[in-house]
Known about the structure:
Number of strands: 5
Low-confidence stretches: none
CATH architecture: Roll
Protein name: IraD/Gp25-like domain-containing protein
Domain IraD/Gp25-like: 20-103
InterPro entries: IraD/Gp25-like
Number of domains: 1
CATH topology: Nuclear Transport Factor 2, Chain: A
Order of helices and strands: EEHHEEE
Amino acid sequence: MIPTTVGMNTLTGYKTADLNHLQQSVADVLFTPIGSRVMRRNYGSHLFELIDQAANDSGRMRVIAASAEALLRWEPRLALSNIQVSAESDGRVCIEVRGKLADDTPQHFSVAYGGTS
Protein backbone atom coordinates (compact mmCIF):
# COMPACT_ATOMS: atom_id res chain seq x y z
CA MET A 1 0.00 0.00 0.00
CA ILE A 2 1.23 3.47 -0.79
CA PRO A 3 1.91 5.88 2.04
CA THR A 4 -1.28 7.65 2.97
CA THR A 5 -1.92 10.57 0.69
CA VAL A 6 -4.94 12.74 1.26
CA GLY A 7 -6.56 15.30 -0.97
CA MET A 8 -9.93 16.70 -1.95
CA ASN A 9 -12.23 14.93 -4.36
CA THR A 10 -12.66 17.30 -7.29
CA LEU A 11 -16.30 16.28 -7.81
CA THR A 12 -17.64 16.17 -4.25
CA GLY A 13 -15.28 18.37 -2.24
CA TYR A 14 -14.93 15.60 0.33
CA LYS A 15 -11.67 14.00 1.42
CA THR A 16 -10.14 11.35 -0.81
CA ALA A 17 -7.13 9.20 0.00
CA ASP A 18 -4.68 6.57 -1.18
CA LEU A 19 -5.62 4.82 -4.45
CA ASN A 20 -8.60 7.07 -5.14
CA HIS A 21 -6.30 10.06 -4.69
CA LEU A 22 -3.71 8.48 -6.99
CA GLN A 23 -6.26 7.87 -9.74
CA GLN A 24 -7.59 11.41 -9.43
CA SER A 25 -4.02 12.76 -9.57
CA VAL A 26 -3.24 10.72 -12.70
CA ALA A 27 -6.32 12.16 -14.42
CA ASP A 28 -5.34 15.67 -13.27
CA VAL A 29 -1.82 15.34 -14.69
CA LEU A 30 -3.06 13.93 -18.00
CA PHE A 31 -5.91 16.37 -18.57
CA THR A 32 -4.15 19.58 -17.51
CA PRO A 33 -2.68 21.36 -20.54
CA ILE A 34 0.95 22.36 -20.12
CA GLY A 35 1.12 26.11 -19.58
CA SER A 36 -2.33 26.43 -18.01
CA ARG A 37 -1.43 26.24 -14.32
CA VAL A 38 -0.32 29.52 -12.75
CA MET A 39 3.03 29.30 -10.91
CA ARG A 40 3.56 25.80 -12.34
CA ARG A 41 3.52 26.34 -16.09
CA ASN A 42 5.31 23.08 -16.93
CA TYR A 43 2.76 20.90 -15.05
CA GLY A 44 0.44 18.68 -17.08
CA SER A 45 0.62 16.85 -20.38
CA HIS A 46 0.65 17.46 -24.12
CA LEU A 47 -2.66 15.59 -24.66
CA PHE A 48 -4.57 18.76 -25.53
CA GLU A 49 -2.19 19.36 -28.42
CA LEU A 50 -3.28 15.98 -29.82
CA ILE A 51 -7.06 16.43 -29.73
CA ASP A 52 -7.50 16.83 -33.50
CA GLN A 53 -5.00 14.13 -34.44
CA ALA A 54 -6.14 11.10 -36.41
CA ALA A 55 -7.30 8.11 -34.37
CA ASN A 56 -4.86 5.78 -36.11
CA ASP A 57 -1.81 3.90 -34.83
CA SER A 58 0.38 6.97 -35.08
CA GLY A 59 -2.11 9.10 -33.15
CA ARG A 60 -2.44 6.45 -30.44
CA MET A 61 1.35 6.29 -30.09
CA ARG A 62 1.47 10.07 -29.62
CA VAL A 63 -1.17 9.83 -26.87
CA ILE A 64 0.75 7.00 -25.17
CA ALA A 65 4.02 8.96 -25.37
CA ALA A 66 2.45 12.17 -24.02
CA SER A 67 0.78 10.23 -21.19
CA ALA A 68 3.95 8.36 -20.25
CA GLU A 69 6.06 11.53 -20.32
CA ALA A 70 3.65 13.38 -18.03
CA LEU A 71 3.14 10.53 -15.56
CA LEU A 72 6.85 9.76 -15.30
CA ARG A 73 7.51 13.39 -14.52
CA TRP A 74 4.59 14.27 -12.24
CA GLU A 75 3.39 11.09 -10.51
CA PRO A 76 6.26 9.53 -8.52
CA ARG A 77 3.92 7.21 -6.57
CA LEU A 78 3.39 5.06 -9.67
CA ALA A 79 6.12 3.09 -11.46
CA LEU A 80 4.64 2.94 -14.94
CA SER A 81 4.71 -0.37 -16.80
CA ASN A 82 2.09 -0.03 -19.57
CA ILE A 83 -0.30 2.46 -21.15
CA GLN A 84 -2.99 1.49 -23.64
CA VAL A 85 -5.29 3.83 -25.52
CA SER A 86 -8.64 3.10 -27.11
CA ALA A 87 -11.18 5.29 -28.86
CA GLU A 88 -14.79 4.68 -27.81
CA SER A 89 -17.76 4.93 -30.18
CA ASP A 90 -19.10 8.01 -28.36
CA GLY A 91 -15.90 9.96 -29.04
CA ARG A 92 -14.22 9.36 -25.68
CA VAL A 93 -10.61 8.33 -25.43
CA CYS A 94 -9.90 5.75 -22.74
CA ILE A 95 -6.37 5.63 -21.33
CA GLU A 96 -5.55 2.47 -19.37
CA VAL A 97 -2.63 2.84 -16.99
CA ARG A 98 -0.74 -0.06 -15.43
CA GLY A 99 2.09 0.16 -12.96
CA LYS A 100 3.32 -0.64 -9.49
CA LEU A 101 3.32 1.26 -6.25
CA ALA A 102 6.42 1.69 -4.08
CA ASP A 103 5.66 -1.62 -2.30
CA ASP A 104 5.38 -3.46 -5.68
CA THR A 105 1.58 -3.66 -5.49
CA PRO A 106 0.33 -3.77 -9.09
CA GLN A 107 -2.25 -1.16 -10.07
CA HIS A 108 -4.52 -0.86 -13.08
CA PHE A 109 -7.08 1.82 -13.78
CA SER A 110 -8.59 3.76 -16.64
CA VAL A 111 -9.25 7.42 -17.19
CA ALA A 112 -11.47 8.69 -19.98
CA TYR A 113 -11.75 12.03 -21.70
CA GLY A 114 -14.13 13.68 -24.13
CA GLY A 115 -17.18 12.24 -25.79
CA THR A 116 -20.73 13.37 -26.18
CA SER A 117 -22.80 14.49 -23.24
